[in-house]
Specification:
Blueprint: E1 4-9, H1 15-22, E2 28-34, H2 38-48, E3 52-54, H3 57-60, E4 67-70, H4 74-86, E5 90-93, H5 101-113, E6 118-120, H6 128-138, E7 145-153, H7 173-190, E8 193-201, E9 206-208, E10 218-220, E11 226-233, E12 238-244, E13 251-258, E14 261-264, E15 273-279, E16 286-291, H8 300-311, H9 319-336
Parallel strand pairs: 1-2, 1-4, 2-3, 4-5, 5-6, 7-12
Antiparallel strand pairs: 7-13, 8-11, 9-10, 11-12, 13-14, 14-15, 15-16
This protein binds nicotinamide-adenine-dinucleotide (NAD).
Nicotinamide-adenine-dinucleotide binds next to helix 4.
Length: 364
């Protein structure tokens, strides 16, 4: 076997992380990069030594490409992912899977019809940090997991992102942009969500871009920028979550309490970190796992997909999981907007990666 050829569509901010990683993973060869703005694709191709660049057809029409990483903005996720599956290629999508439930369900059905797979970010949960969380829980350090807490607060990304409008509009906001990391992490422990309640608010109707060529330009905010949610899981777990772009204080917390103790978990927006255990009635806390990202970053989900396809196994960040997370987020958002909503999806519990799994060691 040999390295799998892939293409990338979307040459924006996050493409640097994908290109930096995937061009060093030996099981992957990035053969083409596209963007609707061909110049952006050219500049990234030159920076990372990708041979072919242009608009989407340079990826879609290349018969050698097996999988495409779709890192366009959320409003384009469905359209581009459908083009990929209709070209007979597997697709790895950035989060959220799409910006509404119907297009997300149609995408998964379309992929099935074409005999190809859909994977979706976040792949942070298959990074060493969250795989360590799962191992700590599975070996019984906290007893039976009972409850989870998520707190994500920041003043919002409009100061540093050069094109942040999409992060405050349909398909994003703190819930749909940041929520996937934390909500997907919780489902690794508690499984499918069965009930959600939520409230929401919006501190500002417009925001101002703080960097890049459009600095000083204002844009409309059309989604809640603070959402509080209570989550009940089908297997009995409970969690509470806050996702906010309306906070002067920047803070990230994700914790899981079990029958015997609690763990503070690594931030599931990154790949490594520490798991810190406090046993019931003990004052001291212990670091029970400490793992570096060690070169694992955005792109390991696509690597796991390709390895799993070759091995005939399920990949660990499947579209079905992302569909369920989207359902949870849209249900919470609808409740946050004062509407009624009901979940219509479930999820799978992806398998742990084998100990020592490494995207930097060739296996294909
Ligand atoms: N920026 C981050 O820190 C970050 C982190 C993790 C995940 N993400 C996710 O990555 C995705 C992209 O985010 P970004 O920050 O790179 O956005 P961005 O706006 O910087 O880049 C998106 C790129 O997609 C291109 N594009 C849009 N529609 C297209 C289409 N139909 N065909 C081809 N190209 C198209 C745009 O021209 C742009 O170059 C989003 O889903 C986002 O949630 C971003």
């Amino acid at each position: 076997m040999s390295a799998a050829k892939i293409g990338i569509i979307g040459a924006g901010v996050i493409s640097d992380q994908y290109l930096k990683n995937t061009t060093t993973y030996p099981d992957i060869e990035v053969v083409a990069i596209a963007d609707k703005v061909a110049e952006k694709a050219r500049s990234q191709a030159e920076k990372y030594g990708v041979a072919v660049h242009g608009t989407n057809e340079v990826v879609l029409d290349n018969p050698d490409i097996e999988l495409v990483i779709n890192i366009t903005t959320p409003d384009a996720h469905a359209e581009v992912a459908n083009q990929v599956v209709e070209a007979g290629k597997h697709v790895w999508n950035e989060k959220p899977l799409t910006d509404n439930l119907e297009t997300a369900k149609e995408l998964l059905a379309n992929a099935e019809r074409h005999g190809v797979r859909v994977g979706c970010a976040p792949d942070t949960v298959i990074g060493p940090g969250w795989q360590a969380v799962r191992r700590v829980i599975e070996r019984g350090d906290i007893g039976e997991p009972l409850t989870g807490q998520i707190l994500f607060q920041s003043p919002g990304p409009e100061k540093w992102h050069p094109a942040p409008d999409f992060l405050f509009q349909a398909g994003a906001g703190p819930l749909l942009d940041i929520g996937p990391y934390y909500l997907t992490a919780m489902t690794q422990v508690f499984g499918a969500v069965s009930r959600v309640s939520a409230h929401g608010s919006r501190a500002h109707d417009t925001r101002t871009i703080g960097s890049g060529p459009r600095a000083g330009e204002s844009f409309d905010v059309t989604v809640p920028t603070h959402v509080g949610a209570l989550l009940e899981y089908a297997d009995g777990g409970k969690a509470q979550a806050v996702f906010s772009f309306d906070s002067a204080i920047s803070r990230t917390t994700i914790e899981i309490q079990g029958t015997e103790g609690a763990i503070v978990c690594p931030d599931p927006n990154v790949f490594g970190g520490e798991v810190v255990l406090t046993r019931n009635h003990e004052k001291e806390s212990t670091v029970v796992a400490s793992v570096e990202a060690d070169g694992q970053g955005r792109g390991i989900g696509a690597t796991d997909m390709l390895r799993s396809i070759r091995a005939g196994e399920d990949h660990r960040a499947p579209g079905r999981q992302a569909l369920h997370i989207l359902d949870v987020m849209l249900t919470a958002q609808s409740l946050a907007n004062g509407e009624q909503a009901q979940l219509s999806t479930s999820t799978v519990k992806p398998a742990l990666l084998p100990e020592g799994w490494d995207p930097k060691v060739a296996t294909l």
